[in-house]
Structure of Sorbitol dehydrogenase:
Amino acid sequence: MAQDNLGAVLYKTKDLRLEQTPIPVIEDDEVLLRMDCVGICGSDVHFWQNGSCGNFVVRAPMIMGHEASGVVAKLGAKVKNLKVGDRVAIEPGKPCRYCEFCKTGRYHLCPEMQFCAAPPTHGNLVRYYKHPGDFCYKLPDHVSMEEGALLEPLSVGIHACRRGGVTGGDVVLVLGAGPIGLVTLLAAKAMGASKVLITDILQARLDVAKELGADFTLLVSRDSQEADLVRKVHELLGGHPNISFDASGAESTVRLALLATKSGGVAVLVGMGSAELKVPLAGAVAREVDIRGIFRYVNEYPIALAMVASGKVNVRPLVTHHFGLEQSLEAYEVARRGLGIKVMIHVQPRDANNTHKFTK
Amino acid sequence: MAQDNLGAVLYKTKDLRLEQTPIPVIEDDEVLLRMDCVGICGSDVHFWQNGSCGNFVVRAPMIMGHEASGVVAKLGAKVKNLKVGDRVAIEPGKPCRYCEFCKTGRYHLCPEMQFCAAPPTHGNLVRYYKHPGDFCYKLPDHVSMEEGALLEPLSVGIHACRRGGVTGGDVVLVLGAGPIGLVTLLAAKAMGASKVLITDILQARLDVAKELGADFTLLVSRDSQEADLVRKVHELLGGHPNISFDASGAESTVRLALLATKSGGVAVLVGMGSAELKVPLAGAVAREVDIRGIFRYVNEYPIALAMVASGKVNVRPLVTHHFGLEQSLEAYEVARRGLGIKVMIHVQPRDANNTHKFTK
Amino acid sequence: MAQDNLGAVLYKTKDLRLEQTPIPVIEDDEVLLRMDCVGICGSDVHFWQNGSCGNFVVRAPMIMGHEASGVVAKLGAKVKNLKVGDRVAIEPGKPCRYCEFCKTGRYHLCPEMQFCAAPPTHGNLVRYYKHPGDFCYKLPDHVSMEEGALLEPLSVGIHACRRGGVTGGDVVLVLGAGPIGLVTLLAAKAMGASKVLITDILQARLDVAKELGADFTLLVSRDSQEADLVRKVHELLGGHPNISFDASGAESTVRLALLATKSGGVAVLVGMGSAELKVPLAGAVAREVDIRGIFRYVNEYPIALAMVASGKVNVRPLVTHHFGLEQSLEAYEVARRGLGIKVMIHVQPRDANNTHKFTK
Amino acid sequence: MAQDNLGAVLYKTKDLRLEQTPIPVIEDDEVLLRMDCVGICGSDVHFWQNGSCGNFVVRAPMIMGHEASGVVAKLGAKVKNLKVGDRVAIEPGKPCRYCEFCKTGRYHLCPEMQFCAAPPTHGNLVRYYKHPGDFCYKLPDHVSMEEGALLEPLSVGIHACRRGGVTGGDVVLVLGAGPIGLVTLLAAKAMGASKVLITDILQARLDVAKELGADFTLLVSRDSQEADLVRKVHELLGGHPNISFDASGAESTVRLALLATKSGGVAVLVGMGSAELKVPLAGAVAREVDIRGIFRYVNEYPIALAMVASGKVNVRPLVTHHFGLEQSLEAYEVARRGLGIKVMIHVQPRDANNTHKFTK
Ligand SMILES: NC(=O)c1ccc[n+]([C@@H]2O[C@H](COP(=O)([O-])OP(=O)(O)OC[C@H]3O[C@@H](n4cnc5c(N)ncnc54)[C@H](O)[C@@H]3O)[C@@H](O)[C@H]2O)c1
Ligand SMILES: NC(=O)c1ccc[n+]([C@@H]2O[C@H](COP(=O)([O-])OP(=O)(O)OC[C@H]3O[C@@H](n4cnc5c(N)ncnc54)[C@H](O)[C@@H]3O)[C@@H](O)[C@H]2O)c1
Ligand SMILES: NC(=O)c1ccc[n+]([C@@H]2O[C@H](COP(=O)([O-])OP(=O)(O)OC[C@H]3O[C@@H](n4cnc5c(N)ncnc54)[C@H](O)[C@@H]3O)[C@@H](O)[C@H]2O)c1
Ligand SMILES: NC(=O)c1ccc[n+]([C@@H]2O[C@H](COP(=O)([O-])OP(=O)(O)OC[C@H]3O[C@@H](n4cnc5c(N)ncnc54)[C@H](O)[C@@H]3O)[C@@H](O)[C@H]2O)c1
Ligand SMILES: [Zn+2]
Ligand SMILES: [Zn+2]
Ligand SMILES: [Zn+2]
Ligand SMILES: [Zn+2]
């Protein structure tokens, strides 16, 4: 096997380096993957710029990357769902499999979760990476490696919609049209929402949302009056949304989610902002608007793959930039500047493992 | 107001007559409707041919019709959601509003339900008909009166899918491609199912299913071997369906639903066949395949309307025949002979109340 | 029928009067009740002291009282579940029966709800009062009129537990041991909770909680450190509660509910405090602790009655004071001073309608 | 460590032998247990008498036993929840931890489940037995080893009640008062059922049920008329049960569960009888009575332990017979003859590991 194992390693705040790393040795339940596509996520940029994200702090050099796809290069003795050469999407967490959370089907809450590029666990923006076989999902031929990588953010959107209980006929409000707001929009439409209104403070993002199927968009400005926004949401939707999603993390969007949602509805909090927020809880209590946070995803990768493979969801327009592994720093810089939506890093030459050229 | 109130009245088995009936007088919470479209359902034909259906027996002359739309002609004093001239879809049941079922949101199980054309309650295949205002749903301009009438069977399909818990990524089996199997297919796709396999013993119905979006079809014959069918279903779907629907009512399809469904999945029974069936229950118990019957619909009309109005579901191809009210007997005869899918009776001239001509 | 219809009428802030009122005339679906027991609730005192409570403002003289039981004196033509002389508990709300909330089984959220002693709707602290028959629940002989009145607060506790999903083996935290905290404790134990820890700032209330079956109590002081409290809760319970209830409405207890609850658990907010609260939402999001407010109750009266009638729940120790109707002002004064738990007003002589003397 | 590892080994139909077996060698995630109590279950007797049970066939000598408790003798390197000397209840299944069922919290449906004394997997009626540490639950001092063993059948009852959704105020019907019917009764009462009616064809079993808290009992005879039974059930309960449990497996009890349950309720099938049954499905469909089978338990051991440890459930009266390991054949013979309820085999001297003598 090749000895080259170049990877993008974060040493500390603003110190991201491309360097050789050891090729990992697999366990019986693992596969070795030759990486292909790795997207950049907001949290990656946050780690790079701040050396931490939420409770996670970078204390030792860590390989970046967790939105990824690759090709199976080697199989552990116990892996039966895959074979060498399989193109796979990688669900980036490895739970303990023994705790109460793992056994009740909520492994994403496992306290011993090892999650790619959440310190101290290495990620997969590197040539060779090992992973538990059961968290690798074989892609059908017609699904591209880019789409495989995009299953990660899509799974967040699906998890949000499943937690919110989105189903046929729902009227949905999504606050924030960044990558996460957009995948929430896609998932909500695919799960039957009949009207989705999405907001942002940037018109460019709303334009993408429109292209992706938003029924209504609302451009918000930082000094919009809260009561006005509630009224506008209700006007545009012809009523109250029964499910709202905060996909921005700002106090103002969390507040709007609580205020605008129909009595008896659900406000799903996806955004992760300040630790503390001042919110109009009493109204949510009196109107029984449930508040549900979401953390990543759990058992949603197969659903995301089924949605993409069946054509129910088209995630391709999310990718706005492409870079090679060697250009990773440049790629991160583009992501940092918030140009476009999703920046994709190609560890292998573009389309090397795609049956058709990836075009949006 | 016109004195003509011609209606299709069932006297007894095989004795359906067109005759004048009194124009009803409305209560405060009711509206008088000038009827427009009324579809024919399998149960209508059953009443006509047998004088009964399930526990319901025709003992006095009864106006037929329950899949219907109309235009508001007169308003009761307490009706606030409508105005004269509104085009509406009619949810055909009137529950008591006082019992435990009505108060827990399951009014379709209300023991005092008065349901159109379920004896002794009159239906709405007649010029003027009165109905509680809150069970009339105003149609947006772009939704046709035919679509309004089709919300009735569509609601059955949606109720079936909601009871089955259909959501994103589901793999679905529908047994029977009559009107009910087809609306179940439409609802399942709209609610996120990524693969739907539908079966029938008639190729013509499978062809319609294909047109409506079925991912796979399977032509079954009366002497198909059970084990073979299970295997074929799994082969076509690339695995077990996690939700199956019996939409035929035959013992063989109920059995197949139980046998083919994934462990931990759901078999929804929509079909209403013999009172007693011999079924492989032990396997369903040991594999925890839940069995859920469905009865009509409850709170699904607004969802059905949202789905049609938003374009998520296209029910128009279901209509294969059109007749005027005066041709009702001819229309019933066509329905009885099982030609086509849905026979639509026009109480008013076609497209009288549509903004665009109704074409499939 | 007697012409005496003395009632306790609130004119405005701090202006509660005993005076004659007209005997109401019943509708077909109503009964006339000769009132027996009426408890005093925190909100009653709040209206009396402040002329308002939440969004409800007293603008015209209003009869007080909503935790009540009575005896059927007269029957409307359509009432079939009752007969004259029946002893009943009164569920104090009258929803519209027509709106989306009423039809989906969430009538407590009906925007047209008429709720006893929520302005402008009159309550039932009066000799004769009329009410929809279906919201009156016949008491078995062995259930006292006092218990009938106590079904009201108990229903709040049951609704809270049903919203929280309390079931066998649950570990529960209740914050606040006022009447509402105590009924939540009772309901949680009856629904299978294996450990309940209840907190308060008053030892006297914790003593009552202990008597009612609390497994653990924790005396809190206004200057307790948040982190200490979280730790103490976990120590006492031997782990994290999976369901927490705020039954105080203070910012500090809402915060504690969010912080102490197990990942993936539920924090139920029953307390109604300030309109706005500063809370550590990000942690609840990342740990998927659901936040669910509750508003009164819905379909819980029959459950409350079943629990009391079967002996699963003993609400009798909650009553600490008794007064006659003529002593209503005195009774309100005792309630205002927060002495004891539940103050009961007897519109008829004590035990007039009980088979056994009411003793705690 | 002692070399004696006497166990009860089933060779084939009616050929159960006591003989030495090898002491197992533990894996890193396992513990070695010195067994204490092992109850006999109906399926054990079935295997002994028939060499098979359902799809499981004895093809090689197999150690019996799966309702058990023991003491930790040795710890695998990765086991952190236990220490040597801990008294534990043993959840007898070992799922794969990798499949879809394991990851969605339904590991009891894992197709690779290795379940004690389900061929070809050995059970634990033997001196030394090894088991995954996370499926061993430490017993508090006051919980006896007998109670530890009884968590197994209790977990079946709890699983049945959780699947049925038993909660406060429920009216419950249990058909069959064998060990499984009785634990279902215990679980239902502990989870809030206000009325439980239990039936059997043997008065002796109904007497035990009465002692365990049944509100009503009904003695059935093989020639009871179905319609009569339905009527009697409704009379005794003063209405329809909203949840019914078949705990016998007979066609007649499954039928009764479907017929007697309230519209919109649930019929839980626990009994495992003939592969095929003739049942009145159409009525269950039209009344939306859900049918849910159950298979063993999943994540219910901790709940069972919490219920027993908190005193909510008293399982002690279930044990009617005691034998030493050396008397295993005698014990099986008593179980076969259906005398008493639960036969307990003591691998160690009685009360060797109990703080208090075990007395019912
Ligand atoms: N809960 C989880 O598991 C999870 C997973 C991934 C991301 N996240 C969080 O989701 C959020 C969104 O992620 P992203 O990658 O899309 O981030 P992003 O920053 O690209 O997108 C946020 C969007 O919100 C918009 N916005 C800002 N203020 C707004 C306002 N007042 N009204 C409307 N829109 C406003 C921004 O313009 C931006 O387009 C972040 O807080 C992130 O931390 C959570
Ligand atoms: N539960 C409810 O509330 C509800 C409401 C409406 C209709 N229904 C019932 O749903 C069923 C379907 O209604 P419909 O109007 O579509 O009836 P239909 O008779 O038009 O359709 C049934 C279809 O099943 C097909 N079929 C027959 N045997 C089959 C087999 N072995 N395998 C596969 N397909 C087979 C038939 O060819 C036919 O196309 C009926 O039993 C009806 O009574 C129930
Ligand atoms: N959501 C609803 O439908 C509903 C219905 C009834 C009551 N309520 C609300 O429930 C709350 C409780 O009602 P109640 O009648 O029992 O009121 P209460 O005032 O008698 O009881 C509140 C209890 O909380 C205690 N408390 C105060 N601060 C505390 C702290 N920091 N930690 C622990 N305990 C503390 C008080 O000492 C008191 O015993 C009120 O806010 C009321 O408005 C809500
Ligand atoms: N689903 C599961 O995971 C699971 C687990 C354990 C046991 N089981 C099954 O549960 C059933 C009960 O187990 P058990 O150990 O209590 O068995 P059991 O044989 O001791 O008890 C069955 C009881 O039903 C009674 N009975 C028979 N006919 C009856 C009738 N017509 N009406 C009322 N009662 C009648 C019998 O007298 C007996 O008391 C068995 O079928 C067993 O296979 C299922
Ligand atoms: Zn874990
Ligand atoms: Zn009703
Ligand atoms: Zn209403
Ligand atoms: Zn498994």
